[in-house]
């Protein structure tokens, strides 16, 4: 697969799941989320690299499995595994196979998520992104309209796109849905007298 | 558990990727719909070098590009208007926010790109309970309140809005060469650049100036017009061919403009007036037939779609009786 096709495939089939993966990882890490972020990132990179040779049939399942394996590797090396952690992870993998959970947000929801993200940006930053990306003005036109330098426009773009990425990560409604299902499984398991977690 | 790993820091990668995105964008290389990393690498050898250092760089860049692409797609969402896609001279972008979904958020601005022909009027309308923002390419914003209809025409020498129904808030960008006029029910409101609202009421037109100043002209006859300059924090009421200007102060003005955040504020308002205000925003219409209670004064802050909270206040705190019609279309309050 040539790189351009691979990139498009990755953007379309893998990246939409990153928020769900992050929530899953945060839940199993149960430590500061910086770990979960780094594991998510590593999982994405591994999926990309292996897709160079062959793209997986079920990208989402493969992504989650990769994330889980990275976590288990690290945990094994740190020797802090509990029996509960291991059995939990086995259960969870079946949840993510279920197609009944909606994978993609509806258009209306996507619009609302994006709008929310845009308005969370501070004033000038929001204006820059709006003029540049949505209205389609050039960098020079944007700078002129707002009365700032072109370097300032570039700086606002840089910061704005990061803030948007952060907001989109934390705002994904579908991920919440996944979390609910996982908890249901966990409460089922609790009845079988497995040691409860904090 | 302590930090588990020596994996490359996600935040560092994201920082680097966004720096590259901004730099490539500054060169105008990211104006396309879909990113082509190979093409970008060709245009910028420094970027190519960073990209080739590791797949983690590549993935980080793809991630930040996916955010960039998603935002651009805001302009693809279908608008509820049927706009003709003729070769545009002006680009009008509009966003809307249904009050029912608003919660306590301030007006959201999302976008749908609506391409419109130049020189001809373009109509925007809201239904009962709906609010909407129309953003003009020259930088002005028009916020439409519930049940409002405007038409916008932009030409070389003037910017004209006709308000045929309802209430709108105007945040107009300053342009000496192109005055902005709002025409409604026998008045013309002219500004160069400022923030004000216009409400077409049954009896007349109410203009509230938030900032700057506006000129209100009452067109009595063709060659004879009464005119007034209205300054910030004032409300002008134009009725029966007379213009009355009241200096109200910023608090009163903010109260009158609370609809912009989906709120209604009552401060010693009569029950009859309060009910009438709610009726602008909700389909079930509230009536107060009992004259003994119509002049009861109410105070409070409500979400404009939350007439049930208002009714609850009336029954719980004022001990009034609320009865709904069978078809749910009218609600009557009695003592």
Overview features:
heterodimer, A: 198 residues, mainly alpha, 10 helices, disordered C terminus, B: 335 residues, alpha+beta, 15-stranded mixed beta sheet, three-stranded mixed beta sheet, extended
Notes on the protein architecture:
The complex is a heterodimer of chains A (198) and B (335). Chain A is mainly alpha-helical. Chain A has helices at 3-14, 18-29, 33-51, 59-78, 83-95, 107-119, 123-134, 139-146, 150-170, 173-190. In chain A, α7 (123-134) runs antiparallel to α8. Mean pLDDT of chain A is 71; it is low at 80-105 and 173-198. In chain B, α1 crosses α4 and α2 crosses α3 (45-52). Chain B is of the alpha+beta class and 335 residues long. In chain B, the strands form three sheets. Chain B has a 15-stranded mixed beta sheet that branches. In chain B, strands 17-20-19 form a three-stranded mixed beta sheet. At the A-B interface, α1, α3, α4, α6 and α7 of A face α1, α4 and β1 of B.
SSE topology sketch:
The complex is a heterodimer of chains A (198) and B (335).
Chain A: H1 3-14, H2 18-29, H3 33-51, H4 59-78, H5 83-95, H6 107-119, H7 123-134, H8 139-146, H9 150-170, H10 173-190
Chain B: H1 10-26, H2 37-43, H3 45-52, H4 55-72, E1 90-98, E2 112-116, E3 122-125, E4 130-135, E5 141-144, E6 149-154, E7 159-171, E8 180-184, E9 187-191, E10 195-200, E11 204-211, E12 213-219, E13 225-231, E14 234-239, E15 242-247, H5 250-256, E16 263-270, H6 271-279, E17 285-287, H7 291-294, E18 297-303, H8 307-317, E19 321-324, E20 330-334
Helix pairs in contact in B: 1-4, 2-3
Number of alpha- plus pi-helical segments of chain A = 10
Decide which structural class fits the backbone of chain B.
alpha+beta
- What does the main sheet of chain B amount to? 15 strands, mixed
Shape of chain A: elongated
Radius of gyration of chain B: 26 Å
Percentage beta strand of chain A: under 5%
Unreliable stretches of chain B (pLDDT < 50, length at least 5) are: 77-119
């Amino acid at each position: 697969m040539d790189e351009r096709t691979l990139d498009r495939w990755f953007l379309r089939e893998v990246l939409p799941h990153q928020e769900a993966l992050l929530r899953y990882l945060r839940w199993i890490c149960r430590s500061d989320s910086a770990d979960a972020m780094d594991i998510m990132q590593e999982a994405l990179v591994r999926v990309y690299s292996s897709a160079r040779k062959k793209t997986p049939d079920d990208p989402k399942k493969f992504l989650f499995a990769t994330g889980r394996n990275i976590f288990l590797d690290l945990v094994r090396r740190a020797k802090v595994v509990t029996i509960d952690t291991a059995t939990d992870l086995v259960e969870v993998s079946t949840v993510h196979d279920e197609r009944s959970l909606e994978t993609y947000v509806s258009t209306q929801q996507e619009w609302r998520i994006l709008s929310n993200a845009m308005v969370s940006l501070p004033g000038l930053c929001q204006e820059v992104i709006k003029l540049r990306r949505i209205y389609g003005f050039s960098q020079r036109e944007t700078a002129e309209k707002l009365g700032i330098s072109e370097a300032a426009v570039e700086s606002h773009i840089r910061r704005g796109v990061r803030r948007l990425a952060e907001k989109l990560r934390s705002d994904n409604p579908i991920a919440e849905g996944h979390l609910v299902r996982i908890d249901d499984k966990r409460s089922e398991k609790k009845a079988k007298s497995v040691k409860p977690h904090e | 558990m302590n930090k588990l790993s020596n994996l490359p820091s996600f935040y560092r990668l994201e920082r680097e990727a966004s720096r590259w995105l901004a730099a490539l964008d500054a060169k105008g290389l990211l104006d396309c719909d879909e990113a082509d990393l190979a093409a970008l690498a060709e245009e910028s050898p420094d970027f190519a070098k960073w990209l080739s250092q590791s797949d983690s760089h590549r993935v980080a860049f793809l991630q930040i590009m996916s955010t960039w692409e998603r935002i651009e797609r805001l302009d693809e969402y279908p608008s509820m208007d049927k706009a003709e896609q003729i070769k545009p001279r002006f680009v009008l972008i509009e966003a809307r926010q249904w009050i029912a979904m608003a919660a306590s958020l301030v007006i959201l601005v999302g976008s749908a790109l609506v391409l419109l022909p130049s020189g001809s009027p373009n109509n925007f309308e809201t239904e009962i309970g709906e609010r909407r923002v129309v953003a003009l390419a020259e930088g002005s914003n028009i916020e439409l309140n519930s049940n409002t209809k405007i038409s916008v025409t932009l030409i070389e020498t003037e910017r004209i809005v006709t308000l045929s129904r309802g209430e709108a808030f105007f945040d107009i960008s300053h342009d000496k060469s192109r005055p902005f006029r709002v025409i409604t029910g026998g008045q013309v409101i002219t500004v160069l650049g400022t923030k004000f609202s216009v409400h077409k009421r049954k009896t007349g037109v109410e203009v509230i100036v938030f900032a700057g100043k506006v000129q209100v002209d009452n067109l009595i006859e063709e060659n004879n017009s009464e005119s007034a300059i209205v300054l910030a924090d004032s409300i002008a009421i134009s009725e029966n061919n007379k213009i009355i200007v009241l200096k109200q102060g910023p608090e009163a003005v903010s109260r009158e403009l609370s609809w912009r955040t989906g709120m209604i504020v009552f401060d010693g308002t009569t029950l009859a007036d309060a009910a009438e205000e709610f009726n602008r925003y909700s389909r079930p219409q509230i009536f107060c037939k009992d004259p003994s209670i119509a002049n009861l004064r109410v105070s409070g802050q409500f979400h404009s779609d939350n007439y049930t909270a208002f009714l609850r206040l009336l029954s719980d705190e004022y001990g009034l009786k609320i009865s709904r019609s069978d078809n749910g279309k009218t609600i009557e309050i009695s003592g």
